[in-house]
From TrEMBL:
It is found in: Cell membrane. GO terms for cellular component: plasma membrane. Keywords: Cell inner membrane, Cell membrane, Hydrolase, Membrane, Transmembrane, Transmembrane helix, Transport. The chain crosses the membrane at residues 17-37, 43-64, 71-88, 94-112, 124-142, 162-183, 213-233, 268-290, 296-313. This is Autoinducer 2 import system permease protein LsrD. InterPro entries: ABC_transp_permease. GO terms for molecular function: hydrolase activity; transmembrane transporter activity. Its main location: membrane. It is a multi-pass membrane protein.
Length: 323
């Protein structure tokens, strides 16, 4: 049994090693063929590029860890941003606008959790539905047009630079640290892992399974809120549908970083690395003038490889437990 356990652990480490080696190779190649790729400006650009995906990915990590999935994050991201923008345009105070925007995100996150746990609809279907709701709401609220944001405080809080670094990078680092603490250093995080690994055992252990799942979706929605605000700080606009193209990356980043899509295992640092990997690939191929579909093919191939290895690891672990 010990030899099987050691072999499974070896394969798991090998999977992570493949990602790291691929990342290093990409960095070396792009630094050779793309002038300034590893310069200070290049690194700052890379970190800025990955920030939104990283923040969304951290939110998704909580949901994946508990054994569910959320594909509404990209669409939901534009809801709080257009709520803030429209309210500010109509003279509502910044504090109230931010609170209502946060509430809008929390309500959809809570809805995801309640429908999944109380009604029993699979989270993929639930979040597919709320994704459509979010798409429609963002367009209705904004009149289906980008809304400019001129409030100096919100643009300063979520945009501009501090100590020579774009604040979006600093926010990403802060939210990563908070996410790491929540998932790996708190009872809530332990409950997420326990529920994701074995719900019956978690219930017998005294964990409120349904509440834990709902809280995972709510935490995810908070991260989506911050992603929306940071997009405003980055562009000075709230654009309906601006995050819809990021939904796949928000799921891929955690999975590449080692979070199990079957639940029970989540890694915030892994999500950060996964988002960095995606940014390196997309930025490097963009600078080399490769068509966008090249990036899609490469990332899709990596997803299949990572999920295949993860599936084999899970299978071997179950076989080991049976023995």
């Amino acid at each position: 049994m010990e030899s099987i356990y050691g072999y499974v652990k070896y394969i798991e480490k090998l999977k992570n090693l493949v990602i790291y080696i691929t990342m290093v190779i990409m960095i070396i190649l792009f630094s050779i063929f793309v002038p300034g790729f590893l310069s200070l400006d290049g690194i700052i650009t890379l970190l800025t590029t990955m920030a939104i995906v990283c923040i969304l990915g951290i939110g998704v990590t909580f949901v994946l860890t508990v054994g569910e999935i959320d594909i509404s994050t990209g669409a939901l991201m534009s809801v709080p941003s257009v709520v803030v923008a429209v309210l500010l345009k109509n003279g509502v105070s910044l504090f109230i606008a931010l609170m209502l925007a946060l509430l809008s995100a929390l309500l959809i996150g809570y809805l995801n959790g309640v429908v999944t746990t109380k009604i029993g609809i699979p989270s993929f279907i639930t979040t597919l539905g709320t994704s459509g709701i979010a798409m429609g709401l963002s367009r209705i609220i904004s009149g289906n047009t980008p809304v400019s944001v001129e409030d100096k405080f919100i643009l300063s809080l979520f945009g501009k630079d501090l100590l020579g670094l774009p604040k979006i990078i600093l926010w990403m680092i802060l939210l990563t640290i908070i996410g790491y603490f929540l998932l790996h250093k708190t009872r809530f995080g332990r409950n997420l892992h326990c529920v994701g690994d074995n719900r019956e055992a978690a219930y017998l252990y005294g964990i409120n399974v349904k509440r834990t799942i709902i809280l995972a979706f709510v935490v995810c929605s908070i991260y989506v809120f911050f992603a929306g605000m940071l997009m405003i700080g980055k562009t000075s606009f709230a654009t309906p549908g601006e995050g819809e193209s990021l939904v796949l990356d928000a799921i891929v980043a955690p999975v590449i970083g080692g979070t199990s899509i079957r639940g029970g295992k989540g890694s915030i640092i892994g999500t950060f690395i996964g988002a960095l990997f995606l940014a390196i690939v997309s930025s490097g191929l963009f600078y080399l003038a490769f068509p966008s579909w090249t990036t899609n093919i490469l990332i899709g191939t990596i997803i299949i490889i990572v999920l295949t290895i993860s599936s084999l690891i899970d299978k071997w672990q179950k076989e080991m437990e049976c023995k």
